[in-house]
Amino acid sequence: MTDPVLSVEGLCKSFGALRATDGVTLDLRPGEIHAIIGPNGAGKSTLIQQICGGLSPDAGRIRFLGADVTALPVRARARMGLARTFQISSLAMEDTVLQNALLGALGAAGRPWGFLRPALRDAGPRTLAEQALERVGLGDVAAVRTAELSHGQRRQLEVAVALTLSPRAFVMDEPMAGLGSAGSQQLTALLAELKADAPVLLVEHDMDAVFALADRISVLVYGQVVMTGTVEEVRADPRVREAYLGDAP
Ligand SMILES: Nc1ncnc2c1ncn2[C@@H]1O[C@H](COP(=O)(O)OP(=O)(O)OP(=O)(O)O)[C@@H](O)[C@H]1O
């Protein structure tokens, strides 16, 4: 089997007496979408924050691209290509769609942020930004002010910004939240294509999207992974149906 891109082993984080993650072990393999599902308060956000570097684990290890990144700060992990999207929108609403994508591309090129104007004429980052916008289907609205985009288009733009960083793995926190069914379907189609660029660790409450997208699903309950399996395996598991899907066993 090929080495995982990202792996966590025995990850623990407590808040007082509460074990928010309690020995979580899972991995993200090349080319896959690995969804993490679980009831409210199961520890999904706590897990994602530890993976991205915003929270230090009490115990356990995080490896990314073969390196132990457990002690690295958020920025260092991002520079290695760990792209987190969605929960905290970083878009500048008054700027155009292209300018937002360009800010990402400039960051990727390691340039100082202040030189935006000359960089707009600089073919390198600009090309990268335009390609990313085309890729997510926003090529036609590059000159539009970001505030004028629909909710779904903003999600697409956040993906484009992440793409300019040449990610090696995406970590997505509830990308479907707040989208109507048309927006969810559009974003689902985009995410299905994105895993070819880099694998996706996906925390999502929208089960239609999870079942349509996931290659593997891990179910988190009270901070513990109760199972990892394919969509079919997870749907059929009586513990999952009881604990999460709300069905009587
Ligand atoms: N900073 C914190 N201080 C104290 N308790 C916290 C903190 N962050 C999270 N918790 C608690 O840890 C548990 C796990 O929370 P977490 O947000 O990780 O769950 P979640 O699965 O992401 O939930 P949701 O689906 O509602 O977003 C919850 O009981 C929550 O109240």
Automatic annotation (TrEMBL):
<dbReference type="Pfam" id="PF12399">
    <property type="entry name" value="BCA_ABC_TP_C"/>
</dbReference>
<dbReference type="InterPro" id="IPR032823">
    <property type="entry name" value="BCA_ABC_TP_C"/>
</dbReference>
<keyword id="KW-0813">Transport</keyword>
<dbReference type="InterPro" id="IPR003593">
    <property type="entry name" value="AAA+_ATPase"/>
</dbReference>
<dbReference type="Pfam" id="PF00005">
    <property type="entry name" value="ABC_tran"/>
</dbReference>
<keyword id="KW-0067">ATP-binding</keyword>
<dbReference type="InterPro" id="IPR003439">
    <property type="entry name" value="ABC_transporter-like_ATP-bd"/>
</dbReference>
<keyword id="KW-0547">Nucleotide-binding</keyword>
<dbReference type="GO" id="GO:0016887">
    <property type="term" value="F:ATP hydrolysis activity"/>
</dbReference>
<dbReference type="GO" id="GO:0005886">
    <property type="term" value="C:plasma membrane"/>
</dbReference>
<dbReference type="InterPro" id="IPR051120">
    <property type="entry name" value="ABC_AA/LPS_Transport"/>
</dbReference>
<feature type="domain" description="ABC transporter">
    <location>
        <begin position="6"/>
        <end position="247"/>
    </location>
</feature>
<dbReference type="InterPro" id="IPR027417">
    <property type="entry name" value="P-loop_NTPase"/>
</dbReference>
<protein>
    <submittedName>
        <fullName>ATP-binding cassette domain-containing protein</fullName>
    </submittedName>
</protein>
<dbReference type="GO" id="GO:0005524">
    <property type="term" value="F:ATP binding"/>
</dbReference>
